[in-house]
Amino acid sequence: MDSDNDQDFCDNVDSGNVSSGDDGDDDFAMEVDMPSSTERQLETDDYQYKVLTTDEIVQHQREIIDEVNLLLKLSTPITRILLNHFKWDKEKLLEKYFDESDDNTEEFFKCAHVINPFNKPTEAVRQRTTRSQCEECEICFSLLPPDSMTGLECGHRFCLSCWREYLTTKIVTEGLGQTISCAAHGCDILVDDVTVTKLVPDARVKVKYQQLITNSFVECNQLLRWCPSVDCTYAVKVPYAEPRRVHCKCGHVFCFACGENWHDPVKCRWLKKWIKKCDDDSETSNWIAANTKECPKCSVTIEKDGGCNHMVCKNQNCKHDFCWVCLGSWEPHGSSWYNCNRYDEDEAKAARDAQEKLRSSLARYLHYYNRYMNHMLSMKFENKLYASVKQKMEEMQQHNMSWIEVQFLKKAVDILCQCRQTLMYTYVFAYYLKKNNQSMIFEDNQKDLESATETLSEYLERDITSENLADIKQKVQDKYRYCEKRCTVLLKHVHEGYDTDWWDYTE
Amino acid sequence: MSSLPRRIIKETQRLMQEPVPGINAIPDENNARYFHVIVTGPNDSPFEGGVFKLELFLPEDYPMSAPKVRFITKIYHPNIDRLGRICLDVLKDKWSPALQIRTILLSIQALLSAPNPDDPLANDVAELWKVNEAEAIRNAREWTQKYAVED
After folding, report:
1. Number of folded domains that form chain A
2. Disulfide engineering: A153 pairs with which of A115, A147, A325, A443, CB 3.0-4.6 Å?
3. Where in the sequence does UniProt note compositional bias of the Low complexity kind (chain A) (predicted)?
């Protein structure tokens, strides 16, 4: 990534815009400049990943097969099945193969659902293949000459048209690729790709088959991941699997380990938990628990939206009178101003405490959720900003500015989006974080980045005229440099915490 | 309706010529893909003495996909639910086009002899089968007497 603006005059330029009065408290947490970890780059360049097209993936697959075959010297289709069995981990395959080569070869091939290629054809197979009279196909019950029949090394033979139909059904209807087994009942020997291609004449089915085996290659290979962006057909290949920021040729940036949008500083597992939490209705039920009670008589769920504690159930068949506080019948409360004599009973107190706890955990969740969603929505708007910024840049070039001079605007939007995204995920991180001294520094960093980001966003929405142009440019540049720097500081701090175990989690 | 594939015609013929003991499958007069099936409860099983009615249908892409089979007679069995649906591997992912109506019905008969409560379809039945097999077997006998024995 480019880091051409790492000039460090950001600190003093910032004091310039404090005077513009939009960020009140700027006693931010600069004390994060701790020793160590300065050498740690957030975007290290030593992570050499590649973006591959579908053709390149197929090519890559072939290279792996050839590489392994230099050592195994088996046929290509068999090597392919073996590799697929070992999830395309060639080291593991070779290790197992040479480990077990003497006495357990049989077992090795059996596990991979291949007939041992070193076996001599069994008597049965030989007999069947050398037979000259007609055979009955066990699928269509037709009597056919031997040249219309075929089968795998396992010796189960069916007619060509049944094979064709069988394979087509498996590929098209069931979406199977590398894992289609022999058509005989109970036989788990796999059909290799060359045989499939030979037996299936339909070009469309062949294409589908190719897609399926390429897909399973990418899916089970730990060093490959499809770009999760809609309609993108690229895959990313990495030197080792880790949560890293990868940038697809289509423009999408994502985390290699989990496939979500790049989510630094929060870790994959917390983000996964968070997304699940946001997706399922667990919070809906929390809300119901926190805000409603059940009628003690008919159990209908009631939300109390005001009024006194004398409840009359609205269920027409029930109409029960009860006290909202103790859930007891209203009668003993008497006609005097409500005075719930059971209010302090242990049971009632426990129920109240439980409800209180749910309520506060809901409030806590909503606090983080709202901020998370807010940045996510803003980020969507910022994407629109690119279009308007492009227009602005053209206008400015008409005002006698050169192309290079107006590039700062695009850069500003880039940084704005980057900051929004980071901020968004800081709320997920913070949600699971237990409070301690470091978490408070983190929150200060977060607050500071957030207010700077909002200011930058505001600047970018202002109209730019030829009069204020120079001024705006200065302000925008100062601000984005500041934002960028604060973002780096925040991430560095969190990473340092990961390295030195500062962070405690709530779950 | 498209003409009946050779496979189905042949299979039906053979089924009629060489019937399997304890199993009877007759195609419907109006639909050659629909079979009226009768399976007798295997000896030494709680279903002994019972006569179970089933229906069997060969879908359009048979034999590439498995026949659809369902018990019509009520039966107390951990792998058969209230609607008579059967949990059996060869009717699902272990189906092979080289299997036939005959082999499938034999598998079903075998399932009656060897219920598998670890892979249940009827959860309550399977549960009882595991915690109190004697009582489950008693229930199965009762149901057999009640629903599968004609007076």
Report:
1. 3
2. A115
3. 12-21
